[in-house]
Specification:
The chain has a four-stranded mixed β-sheet with strand order 13-14-15-16. Strands 3-5-4 form a three-stranded antiparallel β-sheet, sandwiched between helices. A three-stranded mixed β-sheet has the order 6-7-8. It has helices at about 20, 30-45, 55-60, 65-70, 90-100, 110-115, 170-180, 180-195, 210-215, 220-230, 240-250, 290, 295-305, 320-325, 330-340; strands at about 1-5, 10, 50, 75-80, 80-85, 105-110, 130-135, 145-150, 160, 165, 195-200, 200-205, 255-265, 270-275, 280-285, 315-320. The protein is about 40% helix and about 20% strand.
Length: about 350
């Protein structure tokens, strides 16, 4: 019983709409509400969409109940002791975060760090293990698909990206150069030295050749070898396929001008992947898988038609990225044939620049 505004006593049952305002859940809805509460509780314990089993146990979850709930609610098991939130397809960052949450001393490095910095590498993330450095030099990985490098790491070579402790771009590249193989390392170096669109994101250069040279000042075998490779890098490379094509031509003593600037008949500037300028022979490397997207590939075709109008180009050879990576000998043979002077022409040098 209550008093109204003017002192009149009123039964609660007489208040209109009160039953609708205070609606209790139906008995059948109670299990569903309990499941939602459990899911919300687990989500609060997660960090960056990763739940550590140890945190849930510390919060009072019985192990058997926790395991049953994780399976029934659609969590994804990343590895022993770590799960990803429902509705989230585990990506590279999620997998790296799980390892780093379980072993906070690990620092993302090598190819994994390169991908965080949008530095291109020749192999997809699914085909390579997760790379870390253990500065304490003693950790051995407990999960499959994880590679831990035991090497010294100074604090100034570590930074944070996407919530992860990761080696800096310079340290990442010098690690790749020291580890090899050569072509893989130079693909990454060329990518970092130039402006690139990687994964739909446009970024600027991440470092300079001088910074890499300074960082490779050691006398160990890896540093000495890396310094010998570094002059082969070029900030003018436009894609991984162009890097490999340039290296194959270098090995064949062919040295064209990379990303050569041309002018169309109407005065517009265009850039050719490679140009043997004295001979007027242009080389284009095609393939949307390495230039980015199908749209970028169509733009390359339009650019090809415009390049054909440039007076500096007398002949243009086009090769796919697949040919560059898997049939480079055929490419070199075709270039040699195209550069060979005809009987009626005067002798001219085969290479430029």
């Amino acid at each position: 019983m209550e008093k109204g505004k003017r002192g009149k006593r009123t039964d609660a049952a007489e208040l209109p709409g009160l039953a609708e305002l205070v609606k209790l859940p139906e008995p059948a809805e109670l299990p569903e509400l309990a499941e939602l509460a459990e899911l919300a509780e687990l989500a609060e314990l997660a960090e960056g969409r990763v739940l550590l089993v140890s945190r849930a146990l510390q919060a009072g979850w019985p192990r058997s109940t926790l395991t049953r709930t994780l399976h029934s609610e659609g969590w994804t098991r990343l590895r022993n002791g770590a799960w990803a939130e429902p509705g989230h397809v585990p990506d590279l960052v999620t997998r790296l975060r799980a390892e780093q949450l379980l072993e906070p001393r690990l620092v993302v490095s090598h190819r994994s760090a390169a991908r965080l910095w949008l530095i291109e590498t020749p192999t997809p993330p699914s085909a390579t293990p997760l790379d870390f450095i253990d500065p304490r030099l003693g950790y051995r990985p407990k999960a499959k698909g994880v590679r831990v490098h035991r090497t010294p790491l100074l604090p100034d070579a570590v930074t944070e990206r996407r919530g992860l402790r990761v080696t800096t771009p310079v340290r990442t590249l010098t690690d790749l150069l020291r580890a090899g193989p050569r072509d893989d390392a130079l693909i990454a170096v060329d990518s970092a030295l130039s402006r690139r669109t990687v994964g739909g994101v446009r970024r600027g250069p991440l470092t300079t050749p001088a910074a890499l040279t300074t960082a490779l000042d050691g006398n160990d075998r890896g540093s000495v070898r890396a310094r010998a490779w570094l002059p082969l890098a070029s900030p003018r490379s436009g894609s991984p396929a162009e890097t490999v094509a340039r290296l194959r031509m270098h090995e064949a003593d062919l040295h064209p001008e990379p990303q050569a600037e041309l002018h169309t008949l109407d005065g517009r500037r265009r850039f050719l992947d490679f140009l043997f300028r004295p001979e007027g022979l242009g080389i284009e490397i095609e393939g949307y898988a390495y230039h980015g997207t199908r749209t970028a590939h169509r733009q390359d075709i339009a650019r090809f038609n415009q390049i054909q109008q440039c007076p500096e180009v007398h002949r243009l050879l086009r090769f796919t990225a697949e040919e560059v990576f898997h049939r480079p000998q055929q490419i070199i043979a075709q270039i040699h044939t195209a550069l060979r002077p005809s009987p009626s022409s005067s002798d001219r040098p085969l290479t430029a620049y």
